[in-house]
Amino acid sequence: MDNAWIEQVDALQQLKGVAQQRSSAQHDPVYEYQKEARRTFAKMRADFALQAMRNLLLSILTFQSDGTVEVQYP
Fold first, then answer.
1. Cβ distance 4 to 44 under 8 Å?
2. CA angle, 59 as apex, 58 and 62 as ends, to 5°?
3. Terminal CA-to-CA distance of the chain, rounded, Å?
4. What is the pTM of this model?
5. How far apart are CA 38 and CA 18, in angstroms?
6. From 14, 21, 36, 66, which residue has the greatest number of CB atoms within 10 Å?
7. 10-69 pLDDT tens trace
8. pLDDT score, position 23
């Protein structure tokens, strides 16, 4: 989750500069920023879900004698 969020913040910083440049092309910079921010946030959520599933599927389950399960993540 941390890596996905760090990449999201970095993308938003880059997007800030791009949105300001689009204002010279007579586009609303706030609208452009919001549109792209929503798109990158949706991508971040999808990437996070994929990584979580990958870690879960690659984990090692160890069943303990007391009936509990120990999960070791990669």
1. yes
2. 140
3. 15
4. 0.64
5. 15
6. 36
7. 888 888 877 777 666 677 778 888 888 899 899 989 988 998 888 888 999 899 999 999
8. 64
Return the structure tokens found at 17.
């500069």
Distances (CA, A) of 51 to 33, 36, 44, 55, 68: 26, 22, 10, 6, 25
Provide the token pair at 50.
């994929």
Percent composition of the chain: helix, strand, coil (DSSP 3-state, to 5):
70, 10, 20
- Give the Cα separation of 6 and 44 in Å (integer): 10
In angstroms, the Cα distances linking 67 to 20, 57, 62, 63, 64 are: 58, 21, 10, 7, 5
Q: Which amino acid, residue 42? A: A
